[in-house]
Design brief:
Strands 11, 12, 13, 18, 23, 24, 31, 34 and 35 form a 9-stranded mixed sheet that branches. A 6-stranded mixed sheet has the order 3-2-1-4-9-10, sandwiched between helices. A 4-stranded parallel sheet has the order 6-5-7-8, sandwiched between helices. The protein is built from 17 helices and 35 strands. Helix 5 crosses helix 6, helix 10 crosses helix 11 and helix 10 crosses helix 12. Among the domains are: 115 residues, ATPase, nucleotide binding domain (Nucleotidyltransferase, domain 5), CATH 3.30.420; 137 residues; 79 residues, no CATH class; 106 residues, no CATH class. It is α+β, with helices and mostly antiparallel strands.
C-alpha cells in the first residue's frame, strides 16, 4: 500500500488535511498543479468527526473533486487531549508491583506554584481503589523474584471485571530491563478481560523512572478507548463518503503516523494539533533560511509557542498535560500528568479567541482559562452565548469585522459583543472600549509567558528570533507579543488561520524507537549494535506504510552528568561510531548544557541514559508551492475606528493590497481565515511568498528573562 508521500504525485489525486480546533475545524485540500482549496467550518463537539467529514465534503465540493480522487487523508485531532482536560476518559485500572500502588500520588513531589496554598494537583486518573498490586518483582539486573502468578492475575482480572473498568495499564518495577515479563502479564489480562483496552508500559516508553512510565501507561489506557472509537468511526465515515485513502494522524513529535498505530499508542497524539502548526513553521523557516524562529499559534481556546533553531524544532523526551500550561521543562512542572513520549517542545496557555473575560474577587481583570468554545461561542456570534470573550473584545476594539468572519460563514453582532463586556466594564469602573483594551493587554501578558517558556527559560534570547504568528487569532496578537519580548519582525503566512492543516500537507511520515542504555561511552560495539537493531525496527515499520520509500534515519543520545535527574538529547551523525564521533557528541552535550543551564561539568561525568532512533519518509510536497500561490483579489479599502492607546481611524485592507513597499500602521488586514493587526509604530509589507511581514520601527523594550 502506498503512503501519502507517493500518492501526492499521482495525477488527479488530492491530499486533504483536517485540523480540529476548539472553535473551528480547518480543512485544506491540495490538488494537481498545487491548487489549494481552504475551508473553515465550526467544530462539532462532542462529535468532532462530523466537522471533519463536513469540512472535507465542503472542500472537495469547492474544488470540484470527487471523494475517490483523495489520495491521502491527513488529520490532527484534539480527541485525546480533550479526554484528559475534560476528565471523560475510560475508567482505568492500574496493575503494578506490590509496594508501588501510590506512585501516581507521590510523583516527583514538585509544586508549580510554591506560595499558592490553595493550589491542588489534578486527581490521579486512576483512583487508589482501582490500583491492583501483584506479588511480582523484576530486579534492577533483570532477575524475577518472583514472576507473576497466573492465579493471582486471575483474581486481579476478576476484581477489574467486577468494578466494570474499561481499560487497564500494566507497569511493573524495572520492567524496562525485562520487558517480556510485563508483556506476559498484559497478554494474560487481555485474555482474561476480552474487550478491555490493555497497555503494557514497555510498549509505550521502555525507559527508567517508574513514575513517568506509570503515568504514561495510565494516560495511554485512559484515552485509548475514546481514541479507538473516534478513529474507527472517522475511518468508517470517510469510507461511506467515498474516501478510501489511508488515514494518517499527526503525532506530538511532528510526524505522521498510520491510524492503526495511533489506536495502539494514542498517547503519541496528545499534542497532535499544535505539532502540525509547528511543522508548517519549520518548513517555512527552512525555505526562508531563518536561523531562529518562534512559532506562535493562537486559536479559539489556547495559545501555543515553540522554538525552531536551524530548521529543527526542539523535541522533548517528556512533558506534562492537563495542568493549565503544558510545558516540557522548568519550575512549572508538577502541575499535570507526566508523559514520557517524544513531543515537540510546546508551551501552551488557556488564552484563545473564545477565552472568557471576567473579574476576580479583588476586582482584577482575568482572561481564561474557561472558554466559550464553538457552542455557544462568543456572544457576538449570536448563538446564545452571553459570556464576554476575547473575540467580543476584538470586535469592540474594531480589530475584527463587525459584519462576519471566516469568509462570511460566521455572522457578527457588535451590539451583543458590547452587551457581554458591559458588566465587566462596570466592575472595573470604566467604559466598554477601555475594558476590552484591558482584556487584550492581559491576554498579551499571559501569552508572553508561553513564549518565554520556550526561549529565555531555555537560555535563548527571544530578541534574536523572528516570530511566525498563525492560527485564527495569532495575527491579532503576534505584533503586540513580539513588542513585549523585543522581537523586531513578525511573519504572518498565507492560509494563516489554517496553518496547522497546511502543516499536515507538508509533514513527513515518522516512526521512533527508544531503549535505555547505561554502558560507558567508549563501549562502541554495544552502542553500534543497539543503534543498528533500532534502525532496522524503525525502517521495517516505515516500509509497511510505503514499501518503496528510502527512510532517513537519525540517531540520538539522551545524555546527562552522573547524578542528574534529567537529560538532554544530542544527535549523532551518520557513519561508524568511533572515538572521535563520541568525543564530538560529548562536546555537543557540554555546549547544550551550558546554553540551557549556564554551566558545564567534566568529561568523565557524562553518561548515556537512552538511545533513540527517529526514522522519516520525507514528504516531496514543498511548502513554497503552497504559499507562493497568487493572493485573492483586492477589494475597496475601508476605514474603522480602532482602539489602541487611543482611538484612531484605521485602514482595513486585504493581503493583496500590500506590496513590497513598507506601509505604516495602524492597519487591519483581513483574510478569509484570519485578521492581522499592524499596530501604530510598526510597518507591514508583502514578501515573495505573500507573507505579511510586520516590522517594528520604534524602539522596542528590553526583553525580560
Amino acid at each position: 500500500m502506498s503512503g501519502p508521500a507517493k500518492t501526492a504525485r499521482d495525477a488527479g489525486r488530492w491530499r486533504v488535511a483536517a485540523d480540529i480546533g476548539g472553535t473551528f475545524t480547518d480543512v485544506i485540500a491540495l490538488g494537481p498543479g498545487g491548487r489549494v482549496v481552504p475551508v473553515k467550518v465550526l467544530s462539532t463537539p462532542p462529535d468532532f468527526g462530523s466537522g471533519v467529514l463536513g469540512g472535507t465534503a465542503a472542500a472537495l465540493s469547492a474544488a470540484d473533486a470527487l471523494p475517490r480522487q483523495v489520495g491521502a487523508m491527513l488529520h490532527a485531532t484534539t480527541v485525546a487531549t480533550n479526554a484528559i482536560l475534560e476528565a471523560r476518559g475510560a475508567r482505568t485500572a492500574l496493575v503494578t508491583t506490590r509496594g508501588f500502588r501510590d506512585v501516581l500520588e507521590l510523583g516527583r513531589l514538585r509544586r508549580p506554584r510554591l506560595y499558592d496554598l490553595s493550589w491542588q494537583r489534578p486527581a490521579p486518573l486512576v483512583p487508589r481503589r482501582h490500583r491492583y498490586e501483584i506479588d511480582q518483582r523484576i530486579t534492577a539486573d533483570g532477575r524475577l523474584e518472583p514472576p507473576a502468578d497466573p492465579a493471582e492475575l486471575a483474581r486481579v482480572a476478576a476484581g477489574i471485571a467486577a468494578a466494570d473498568l474499561e481499560a487497564v495499564a500494566v507497569c511493573l518495577i524495572n520492567s524496562y530491563v525485562r520487558p517480556e515479563e510485563e508483556r506476559r502479564v498484559a497478554d494474560e489480562l487481555r485474555a482474561l478481560l476480552p474487550g478491555r483496552y490493555v497497555t503494557a508500559s514497555v510498549d509505550i516508553t521502555p525507559q527508567m523512572q517508574e513514575y513517568e512510565r506509570t503515568s504514561t501507561a495510565v494516560v495511554n489506557s485512559y484515552v485509548g478507548p475514546q481514541v479507538h472509537d473516534y478513529v474507527t468511526a472517522l475511518g468508517e465515515g470517510l469510507r461511506e463518503a467515498g474516501v478510501s485513502a489511508p488515514l494518517m494522524i499527526m503525532q506530538s513529535s511532528g510526524g505522521l503516523l498510520d491510524a492503526p498505530s495511533v489506536v495502539r499508542r494514542p498517547v503519541q497524539i496528545i499534542e497532535s494539533g499544535p505539532a502540525a502548526g509547528v511543522i508548517a513553521v519549520q518548513k517555512l523557516a527552512r525555505h526562508m533560511g531563518l536561523a531562529s524562529v518562534v512559532a506562535f499559534d493562537m486559536g479559539g481556546t489556547t495559545a501555543k509557542a515553540s522554538l525552531i533553531e536551524n530548521g529543527e524544532p526542539f523535541v522533548a523526551g517528556d512533558y506534562e498535560v492537563g495542568g493549565g500550561m503544558n510545558i516540557t521543562r522548568g519550575m512549572g512542572k508538577g502541575a499535570g500528568y507526566a508523559l514520557r513520549v517524544p513531543s515537540i517542545d510546546i508551551a501552551e496557555v488557556g488564552a484563545g479567541g473564545g477565552s472568557v473575560i471576567s473579574t476576580d474577587a479583588a476586582g482584577s481583570l482575568r482572561v481564561g482559562p474557561d472558554s466559550a468554545g464553538s457552542r455557544p461561542g462568543p456572544a457576538c456570534y449570536g448563538n446564545g452565548g452571553t459570556s464576554p470573550t476575547l473575540t467580543d473584545a476584538n470586535v469592540v476594539l474594531g480589530y475584527l469585522s463587525p459584519q462576519a468572519l471566516a469568509g462570511g460563514r460566521v455572522a457578527i453582532s457588535p451590539d451583543l459583543a458590547e452587551k457581554a463586556i458591559d458588566p465587566v466594564a462596570r466592575d472595573l469602573g470604566t467604559d466598554v472600549p477601555a475594558a476590552a483594551r484591558g482584556a487584550y493587554q492581559v491576554a498579551v501578558s499571559s501569552m508572553t509567558k508561553a513564549v518565554k517558556a520556550v526561549t529565555s527559560e531555555r537560555g535563548r534570547d527571544p530578541r534574536e528570533a523572528v516570530m511566525v504568528a498563525f492560527g485564527g487569532a495569532g495575527p491579532l496578537y503576534g505584533a503586540a507579543i513580539a513588542r513585549e519580548l523585543g522581537i523586531d519582525t513578525v511573519i504572518v503566512p498565507v492560509h494563516t488561520g489554517l496553518f496547522s492543516s497546511l502543516g499536515l500537507l507538508v509533514a513527513d511520515t515518522e516512526r521512533q524507537a527508544v531503549t535505555p542504555h547505561r554502558a560507558n561511552l567508549e563501549a562502541l560495539g554495544l552502542l553500534t549494535a543497539e543503534f543498528d537493531r533500532m534502525a532496522q525496527e524503525v525502517t521495517e515499520a516505515l516500509l509497511e506504510t510505503d514499501p518503496s520509500a528510502d527512510p532517513d534515519i537519525l540517531r540520538i543520545l539522551d545524555m546527562r552528568y552522573r547524578g542528574q535527574r534529567f537529560e538532554l538529547s544530542v544527535t549523532v551523525p551518520g557513519g561508524p561510531l568511533d572515538p572521535g564521533l563520541m568525543a564530538a557528541a560529548r562536546q555537543r552535550f557540554h555546549a547544550e548544557h551550558h546554553r540551557t543551564y549556564g554551566r558545564t561539568g567534566a568529561d568523565e561525568l557524562v553518561e548515556i541514559v537512552n538511545l533513540r532512533v527517529r526514522g522519516r519518509i520525507r514528504n516531496p510536497v514543498g511548502i513554497e508551492a503552497i504559499l507562493s500561490l497568487p493572493p485573492e483579489e483586492t477589494r475597496p479599502a475601508a476605514t474603522r475606528m480602532c482602539r489602541f492607546d487611543r482611538s484612531e481611524p484605521t485602514p482595513v485592507i486585504t493581503r493583496a493590497a500590500l506590496s513590497a513597499d513598507l506601509r505604516p500602521g495602524p492597519l487591519v488586514i483581513e483574510d478569509m481565515d484570519a485578521t492581522t493587526l499592524v499596530p501604530p509604530g510598526a510597518t507591514a509589507h508583502l514578501d515573495h511568498l505573500n507573507n505579511i511581514v510586520i516590522v517594528w520601527t520604534t524602539t522596542a523594550p528590553e526583553a525580560s528573562a
